[in-house]
Amino acid sequence: MTRESFEFRTATRIVFGPDSIDRLGALAGELGGRRVLVVSDPGVVAAGHTARGVDSLRRAGAEAFVFDGVEENPTTRHVRLGVEFARGRGIDLIVGLGGGSAMDCAKGINFILSCGGEMRDYQGVGKATGPMLPMVAVPTTAGTGSEAQSFALIADEETHQKMACGDPRAACRVAILDPRTTVSQPAKVTAATGIDAIAHAVETFVTRRRNPVSMAFSREAWRLLDANLERVLDAPDDLEARGAMQIGACLAGLAIECSMLGAAHSAANPLTARYGVVHGGAVGLMLPWVVRFNARESASDYRELASASSNGNAPTADGLVARLEHLRDRCGLPGTLSAWRVERDALPALAAEAASQWTAQFNPRSVSAGDFLALYENAF
């Protein structure tokens, strides 16, 4: 690996431990939060986590306003509705309480409440026009690592394009990792988000933007996630395994902040946008094929990553592929595009869209629309 110059920084304080959600009010108070917008979703509300967070805020003397209109894969519509809900309430702090969708939507709302305009104005990096409201993230899944990133991934409701909107000022001031909040996840959510986190660890380890700091995060994230995903599937109440998954997902999120992602996410995003394929399922399907594709240039890196786990597979790129496919199958996620009801005739258009995705440029091996078409054909 070439030791080129790099810069690493994180603005996020990480607070980990069972029942740490009860510290939300005190931590928000340290940031001056008195009129707090809590962005959540109906499933998290039904599980009782939102109420628990709100109770903590109120015990600390804050007033909480709950916007729970977030759905999976948030769009500009969800952000717009959240902004309309928040305006006029004098919000001075935002809490994203839920999975990656809630946290990303909260960041999107923050961009517009703080800086005006619309979501399209912030696509790219460093587009915020001034200071942003402080934000606290309380992830209730172990998947996206959004709590550790300054990016929001928001889909344009008209074009379905996923827009990566990032700015250092959008980073969460505090991330509260409470493994108890992940126990209530349905098994399908545990599986899909776990595969997503694993994809983050594997992709960030080999990207063109990686550096020694990001690789350390990626390696440890992979070790924790690989060792514990099957444990939480077999024993959902295993709090130690749940905590390891949550820390692993957060470390993978920190790696993304340094190194970005690659072709597996570029290939997955059109499948989610066009066919509603759950993101973890889409990236879990495409990642083994991308590892095979990249192995021509990254075989030694994949060997190093495979060697960081003790799952019995050969410490080679092929061994890593076998492990990824095993974990995907163990999670009950389909192993072909046809099983996701994707039509073969759609593959060229999907390939063109995948090639235009932002993360494709960070893949360690150059990847064209033709390459994406071959990847989709292999996965079909």
Structure, described:
- Helix 1 (24-30) crosses helix 3 and helix 6 (187-204) runs antiparallel to helix 7 (212-234).
- This protein has helices spanning 24-30, 42-47, 49-59, 76-86, 100-115, 187-204, 212-234, 239-259, 263-275, 279-307, 317-330, 347-355, 369-379, and strands at residues 13-16, 35-39, 63-67, 93-98, 124-125, 135-139, 151-155, 162-166, 174-177.
- The protein starts with 12 loop residues before the first strand and ends with a helix.
- It has two domains: 13-181, 3-Layer(aba) Sandwich (Rossmann fold), CATH 3.40.50; 186-379, Dehydroquinate synthase-like - alpha domain (Dehydroquinate synthase-like, alpha domain, Up-down Bundle), CATH 1.20.1090.
- It has a six-stranded parallel sheet, with helices on both faces. A three-stranded mixed sheet has the order 5-8-7.
- With 380 residues, the chain is α/β, with parallel strands linked by helices.
Question: What's the overall geometry?
Answer: globular
Helical segment count: 13
Low-confidence stretches are none
The count of β-strands is: 9
| CATH architecture heading of the largest domain | Up-down Bundle
Distance between the termini: 34 Å
Spell out the helices and strands N to C.
EHEHHEHEHEEEEEHHHHHHHH
Can you tell me the number of structural domains? 2
